[in-house]
Amino acid sequence: MLGQLLLAASRSGLVRRSVSGFPLTRKVVDRFVAGEGAAEARNAIERLVDTGLTVTIDHLGEEVRDAHAAAGTAKAYLELLEALRPLELGARGEVSVKLSAVGQALDDGMALEHARQICEAASANGSTVTLDMEDHTTVDSTLEILRKLREDFPTTGVAIQAYLFRSEQDCRDLAVEGSRVRLVKGAYREPASVAHQGKSEVDKAYVRCLRILMAGKGYPMVATHDDRLISITELLADRFGRTVGDYEYQMLYGIRTDRQEALAGAGHTVRVYVPYGDDWYGYFMRRLAERPANVAFFLRALGGK
Question: 83, exposed or middle or buried, with CB in 10 Å at 0-12, 13-18, 19+?
């Protein structure tokens, strides 16, 4: 019920105006979103890179059902990558792309073409792209688009959500030479028929998927802020003969910055997921709607916990 109310609020102009003017909301958004324009995002990225971190940048927006809007999102990525080119970040500055933001709901071919344009621009920067994963109905389409992109851009990565029942097999299929997989727990409201529901079950599924990726020949990108999962990652790296540089950690912009810098200081690659764009309200409300428990998460983060 709460999730439905939050989702409805994300589409309400009246609620948007009210929430946008609420000081607490604005304070939270400013902490978790690196501004509305490419210039603000670039400034945040420079600050992060100067502290020894790497980044993956997400232009906010998803669930696009208009071809013009899909093309606009692709254009925004091309402009961002052009703005980043003088920084010569190379692999330290990749981008994350939600295929639903570039036309996936309209036509897979459209999404593929836009994603290909973004991959080309990233490649010109010496960098790459990781495809975000969305709700379970998009997984097959996303993995098929990934397969096609990797024919020309073999370093293209993808996110896998551990809480989906299918994800262990997807990890087995992806744990191959040259493959890059960002392992996340999952943040969408999925039915019990396709996904684990309890925190303990999700954590166990994450570890099973992590074990598969660490034992494989690909490049695991371990997206977690959980110290226990970080410790398990180190144990698995030792077990399977991985050294620093054979995998990386990924964390959200504005979350546990001290832990990010500590891991980077120990020699690990730590990549910060940096969202930016003027669709911050939709991003903020949908994150809450996908998992209402995120309300408590954002408030804890606001308090620095």
Answer: middle
Catalytic residues: 132, 182
What pLDDT, in 10s, does the model give residues 76-103? 999 999 999 999 999 999 999 999 999 9
Structure tokens at 30: 């400013």
Above 50 in pLDDT, residue 177? yes
Measured distance CA(97)–CA(16) in Å, rounded:
25
| Cβ pair 259, 43 in contact under 8 A | no
The residues near 82 (Cβ < 8 Å, ≥ 6 apart) are 121
Residues 6+ apart with CB under 8 A from 59: 73, 76, 77, 80, 95, 101, 275, 276, 277
Under 8 Å between Cβ of 100 and 63:
yes
CA 281 to chain centre: 17
Matching residue, tokens 């308090």: 303
User: What is the distance between the alpha carbons of residues 63 and 305, in angstroms, rounded to a whole number?
Assistant: 31
Cα angle, residue 298 at apex, residues 221 and 193 outer, rounded to 5°: 65
Tell if the pTM clears 0.85, that is, is over it: yes
Closest-CA residue to 56 (of 276, 294, 281, 288): 276
- pLDDT value at residue 206: 98
Q: Where are the alpha helices (DSSP H) in 85-180?
A: 108-124, 139-152, 167-174
CA angle 195, 129, 41 (to 5 degrees): 100
- Our CA angle for 63, 65, 69, nearest 5°, is 95
